[in-house]
Amino acid sequence: MTKLFKFTAIAEGISYLVLFFNMLVIKPTDLDLYKVLLFPIGMAHGVLFIGYVMLAFLIYNSQKWSLKELAIVQLASLFPFATFYVEKKYVKNA
After folding, report:
1. Residue 72's closest CA among 16, 20, 18, 9?
2. What is the chain's mean pLDDT, rounded?
3. 2 and 93 Cβ atoms separated by less than 8 Å
């Protein structure tokens, strides 16, 4: 389960950055490419986000996290690059 969480944390972080790249770099070029990419990137990110949050709750006991650590892991899903930090610092025994 922790390997799946590690993969999901990394994939969620990458999808978040790709979503930002689409909206901050591609959109200002006035190409309609960002509109084409928005749905598949957004859908992938949404699925990965939900998976990250659910898996964090599922491995909460096996990783022996306190409620504070669980809150940090959950809040990390809202900030770019934070899921990479969580994957390195909080996930053990994968």
Report:
1. 9
2. 90
3. yes
